[in-house]
Amino acid sequence: MAETTRRIHLGLFLHGAGHHVAGWRYPGAEYGGENLPHLLRLVASAERAKFDMVFLADGLTTDADTHPSMVSRLEPLSALSAFAMSTSRIGLAATASTTYGEPFHTARVFATLDHLSQGRAAWNAVTTSYARSAANFGTAHPPHSERYAIAEEFIDVVKGLWDSWDDGAFPKDQASGVYADSSKLHVLDHKGKYFSVKGPLNSSRTPQGHPIIIQSGSSDPGQALAARTGEVVFTAQQTLESAQEFYRSLKGRLAAFGRRPESLAIMPGFLPVIGGTEQEARDKLATLDAWTDRSKAVPVLSDRLGHDISGYDLDGPLPDLPVSQQLQSRAKLLTEVARRDNLTLGQLAQLVATGRGHHVMCGAPEQIADRMEAWFRGYGADGFNVMPPYFPGGLDDFVTGVVPILQKRGLYRTDYDGPTLRDHFGFPRPPNQHRVAASRRESARA
Ligand SMILES: Cc1cc2nc3c(=O)[nH]c(=O)nc-3n(C[C@H](O)[C@H](O)[C@H](O)COP(=O)(O)O)c2cc1C
């Protein structure tokens, strides 16, 4: 991603019932996190528009008041395996938890997705913020800092397992009878604070070497993890200034790990509400907001703040709350917006119902493209996780209205450069870490 070839990256943040809490009620909307034909049509549309990837978020709990896109949904890796069969270029990013998971299993399922998709897999490694998840795993929810310590070790183990075999370790030579070459096998034998994993992984090295690793926590330990291991970073930013501050902070941490700024792509969420004119777009958002059931918005806000606010007056201000052990960066962002714009608790709940704290923009396609260009050229973003408020219309408006403008301006690809997700991002295929370490040992001996 040299400066001359720097281009906007686009991810489709695929929420089956739309991102706005009331998106599914929009006239003509199709919805359902388990509605496969609907999801496949959306992925096909994003691939025709040359999106880098489609992204499925995930959680480990639900109840009837949960956001319609999260209340029932397909398990992401299973869903992406289906998407892999009907697409050929678009990247496939799935969320999987480092707090409620096992590195061996995680390494294996993502390696499988990379094989199935011929090099298009990405893993959004999340620490699972919500404490109630613990009840489904017969365990206690670790505090914020420990969740990140676990994540650091978890990701190292997964990467070590992905390198269990060298490239070319399976000659499958009928004449000699050698199927697997034992000299190209590396047994991880990991014994750490949180995990004990012997290995090797029963998967050959995948088309991308390693599936791409996405990090989506923006707190201090979240950024530290991203700086060491992340290749793509999702974040929520309200303004260009805060996006630039985050961008500078995170990219500034890379050198300490011997990394260059372009080895990591920062993609804030972006919820475009598109109309023929700005007024038309504003009317659309007003319609969606009017359908929002406040009783459903309050738990969504409580989750983001990390505190139950159901007992507070919705016409009053946001109370002072202690630092959350759940989502630190999002709670901080929402508190700043509420104070800055003097919002009542009810207004803050509406903001969260619309875009959960991500940047919302109403406008005609040209205005949306202008805003994206300003964030991109101003180094607030390397790309965007596009969050249509409803489907399929919200995505159609974006791909037919905004994408051609970005292409005309030379800011966005008109075709894919290669078959893998690493090709889309311009990230090199990583060498096998065990082979690199062995070569170093050999040269030190020589
Ligand atoms: C675009 C985006 C997508 C996310 N997707 C998920 C997800 O699918 N599952 C999840 O548990 N957390 C998800 N998160 C939340 C983060 O993983 C993280 O828990 C949260 O941002 C709080 O981290 P922090 O305390 O480091 O700020 C997402 C965050 C962003 C910005």
Q: What does this molecule look like?
A:
The chain has one domain (7-164, 194-289, 357-445): Alpha-Beta Barrel (TIM Barrel). The chain has 15 helices and 11 strands. It is globular, with a radius of gyration of 22 Å. The protein is α/β, with parallel strands linked by helices. The model has no long low-confidence stretch (mean pLDDT 95). The structure holds flavin mononucleotide (FMN). Residues 57-59, 95, 124, 126-129, 216-219, 222, 234-236, 269, 327-330, 385 line the site of flavin mononucleotide.
- Count of helical regions: 15
Distance between the termini: 36 Å
The beta-strand count equals 11
Question: CATH homologous superfamily - what is it?
Answer: Luciferase-like domain
Uncertain regions spanning at least 5 consecutive residues: none
The CATH architecture assignment turns out to be Alpha-Beta Barrel
Attached small molecules: flavin mononucleotide
Given this structure, which CATH class is correct?
Alpha Beta
Task: Identify the overall geometry.
Answer: globular
What is the makeup of the main sheet? 8 strands, parallel, barrel
The percent of residues in helical segments reads 40-55%
